[in-house]
Design goal:
The structure holds 2 protein chains of 2 kinds.
Chain A: E1 8-17, H1 22-33, E2 37-44, E3 50-59, H2 61-73, E4 77-83, E5 88-99, H3 103-115, E6 119-123, E7 127-134, H4 136-146, E8 151-163
Antiparallel strand pairs in A: 1-3, 1-4, 2-3, 5-7, 5-8, 6-7
Chain B: E1 2-5, H1 6-16, E2 21-24, H2 31-38, E3 44-47, H3 51-65, E4 69-73, H4 77-91, E5 96-102, H5 118-122, E6 128-131, H6 138-150, E7 157-162, H7 163-167, E8 169-172, H8 191-203, E9 207-211, H9 213-217, H10 221-230, E10 235-237, E11 252-255, H11 262-270, E12 273-277, H12 283-286, E13 297-302, E14 316-319, H13 322-336, H14 344-362, H15 371-381, E15 387-390, H16 394-402, E16 411-412, H17 423-433, E17 439-444, H18 445-451, H19 455-460, E18 466-471, H20 476-485, H21 501-507, E19 511-514, H22 518-529, E20 535-540
Parallel strand pairs in B: 2-3, 2-4, 4-5, 5-7, 6-7, 9-10, 9-12, 10-11, 12-13, 13-14, 15-16, 15-17, 17-18, 18-20, 19-20
Antiparallel strand pairs in B: 1-8
Helix pairs in contact in B: 1-2, 1-6, 3-4, 3-17, 8-13, 10-13, 11-14, 15-16, 15-22
The chains are: A alpha+beta, B alpha/beta.
Amino acid sequence: MDMEREEKLYMISAIVEHKPGVLHTISNMFRRRGFNIESISVGVSEEPDLARMTITIKGDEVVVEQLVKQLRKIISVVRVSILDPKHTVARELALIKVNTPDSKTRSDVINYTEIFKGHIVDVAHDSLIIEMTGDSEKINAFIDLMKPFGIKEIARTGIAALPRGMRSTRME
Amino acid sequence: MVLMSGAKALIEALKKENVKVIFGIPGGAILPVYDELSKESDINHILVRHEQCAAHAADGYARASGQVGVCMATSGPGATNLVTGIATAYMDSSPVVAITGQVPRTLIGKDAFQEADIIGITTPITKFNFQINRVSEIPGIIKTAFYIASTGRRGPVLIDVPRDVQTEEADVEFNDEIRLRSYKPIYEPHPLQVEKAAQLLIEAERPVIVAGGGVIASNACQELVALAEFLPAPVATTLMGKGAISENHPLSVGMLGMHGTVAANHLVQDADVLLAVGMRFSDRTTGNLKTFCPNGKIIHIDIDASEIGKNIRPHVPIVADAKRALRAIYQRLVEKAQKKEKTAWLRRMQELKEMQEEVVKSNVGGDGIKPPALMVEIRKILPNDAIITTEVGQNQMWAALYLKVYKPRAFISSGGLGTMGFGFPAAIGAKVACPSVPVVDIAGDGSFIMTEQDLATSVAWKIPVIVIVLNNSVLGMVAQWQRLFYGRRYFAVHLGGIPDFVKLAEAYGAQGIRVQSLEEFRRALKTALNSDVTTVIDVPISSEENVLPMVPPGQDIRNLMLS
């Protein structure tokens, strides 16, 4: 059967049992089967014994279909769905530490942060930490903007995503 | 609720799963369980001599009986010695439950004596694994473990039990509840897919069925034959599917793939519709994937959705139990079409089967004992219900090609992992499961020596099996590849005719017989069949023998080397 062999970025939402070892099982499967994961984020879901995992992977339809099947095969994985980007809210959080040796740079960085609706969460003599949330493109754009000032450190969470409106990845 | 120790709860839970036998070796971290086991008359414990054999024996028991096989080992090296056996069972979807001792909870993660992270180690080679944290969890975990191992696509499950959980006492409740949020194997085929499959098969002029191990696992052999006869379609099998159709059946064309028969390989390549059931299109079966079944529409039935589309994208995918899917397709065929009689396609099958017979004949003449002829002799002497296990390499492929099997679960071989040393302990396990039928391990000298220490187990526990060692003093399959593809540069394959297998057998109190001719072999095998002790028959063969036919790796499976 014909399937799209064009590579693009897919978002996959997996509801998994919130138990020790589950993340290991899943990441081990990715390694074992050679899936190249762009990002993975995990946190407790609306039910305390379940965690929601958001996985982004660059690949074609065949690869993604196989990844979903392999995920569903894992017994601790409760539900897996491919998120449609058009109907999904996807956000990432980044903490970015930027050099601000003088007041000119400092005010420039603060200005940009405001334009991007970020927050300054730490102020030191010669650096600032900016908290930025948004989709990955927005964060990438902001990071590019900060590069000339001198980025000291970046921490990114990976993407967390939910389908919009009444669509649901919950267990019925 | 009953107050009892973890060890006692474990044994009680195993009894509720109807466990009759455990293959294992004790050690410090599992001793409380062994102490309980010593008081138990319903479960027989068979002490093996290496934990790898405990796992293989449990696997052989499972494959011969269709029931879950159980093995047990202590923590650390006991557990890691099980690993090859667990991986073997995983690759061939065999229901095995492995129970390992673990260091006490307070010492886990502290690199304690005989501590190994067996949960981490076995995650990629088990269907699921558990570490027990509380005594109260034991009944539920054991029940769930057996359920997972024996349903859906079967496979091994490991349960790791810290030593202090074994000794702790707590209130335990036994019930039949299985709490799994998402594990629901799909058994029923989708009617729309069944309809599509039936339509393709009705329109087919050159249909072929390929049956894999899943047909045997789901007891779908009758359904397979009924469907094949109705179409009618030649039936090829994978190594794991050998026995799914009697190899005496007129529609049986033998094994497909790298060492496939002339008929199986050509028919599959020429098919216009290929019905693949309970098989996974492994590289050894398909050869070059790009040229596999080039003009055929493929219907793929498998209970594991992840197998569908993994190696081959089928035209009609059916996620279902093989038995139910085959039955559903058969019913639609009967409703919609007439049974066909002798077709041109069957005449073609007959021609190709005759060509295969010629290959057999051209490979049996000459001096000394020829392995294909030996296989034919073995078949003549063994009763039809005898169980044959194999080691891995040339012995395995000769058996697969030339030793006909007439019923399911009568051919037990390490197909996926290809584990040398599997056949002998698997034979012990099969014999424990089926004590009234002869069990024969077709071995090579290289494989047998990997687990021969368990001759001690078979003698001490009076589990008589027959080991036929095709002794060519080399690692035969490796030598064959070096001969064919590495310019005869033989390296690291010479075993030097060591040991003397007759003396080796005798050292263990087993019977050893060396034969020099087919006539002597016949007598030796008859002696072995009438013996109540394990017999090793040493059969010297030439180190220059090739397993033929053979398709060079990665090529179109029509490219069969015949001589």
